[in-house]
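Suppose a colleague, Dr. K., hands you the sequence of a protein chain of 177 amino acids and asks what its three-dimensional shape might be. Before reaching for any lab equipment, you can write down a predicted structure in token form. Begin with the sequence itself:
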Amino acid sequence: MINAVLVFNNNGQPRLTKFYTQLDTSVQQRLISEIFTLVSARPSSSCNFLPLPPLLAPSSNTAQESNDAPSLVTYRHYATLYFIVISTSTESPLALLDLIHVFVESLDYLFEDVCELDLIFNFETLHAVLGEMIVGGVVVETGRERVVEGVKAQGKVAKRPVNERGRGVGSGIWAGR
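The predicted structure, expressed as tokens, is then:
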């Protein structure tokens, strides 16, 4: 099971935080800080898997079974963004890397060369893509074409204004926004 999906920029500012297990807000904030510190300090030649920081390490009170407790941090660094998945030991780390890659490919396809500003200003699309892929902590779709099709069907895709035929950004449908 996937417990959380996080996206940070290189400065540690969260661009997406989606928790599938209930945690106190203060624990979430400390976890976000700890995970970014761990992930950003690793050299690019290191593997993309980490054990979970002690803050959420399994204890006898947090999970009924050891397989149900969050235990693994899987991440991938693309340009200026870190994509991070916190999961249980039952999830395959290589499958999670593929999930992250499909997530990024889907965003790239929808935004036509995605950048950090696309994630900031079009967070609805970001959440819609994640919602097409993961429901309640369970991966339901890993095909880019089907994810993109589902998001487009929801009508959650926002396009960037394009400077066409000499018209500025302030003209056309983007005027007044």
